[in-house]
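I have been asked to look over a protein record a colleague put together. Alongside the sequence sits a line of tokens, each denoting a local backbone shape. I have pasted the whole thing underneath without changing anything:
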Amino acid sequence: MNRYVIYFLSPLFYICIALAGRAFTAQGIDPWYQAIAKPSYTPPGSVIGTMWTVIYILAAVSLIMFMKHAKGKSGFWPIFGLYIVNGIVNAAWSYLFFTKHLLGLAVIDAGLIAITVLIIILWSWHYSRLAAALLMPYFGWVSFATYLTYVIFKMN
């Protein structure tokens, strides 16, 4: 794959995931989200938005680095596919939580996001330690988000 295509497609992929999540979130943020019970440690929307922006940037750079170092090598396609699956389940969380208000399924989906990020980190470490390390904030944040989703589910 041409390196310029890699530099274009990776950010485009994460922009699409972010826009999908944003559209799904907008469908349920008012008044539903404002009205549900949330723990006191729920971060404000500005913090959540900033964190996801940083995470998507790091993930896009991670994908670029992984593709540069692993293309043509064995194991490339399963890891590449996992990046795609991760993006899909990431956008699906916003749909399940905000659009459909299916909090229990959102907890499961958040867990799937965390699991796929962890597997990507572990599997891609061999090809690019930096690509793997760039995903560690994503894993930390989504682990917290999984817990927070669970608590919101239990409260409601």
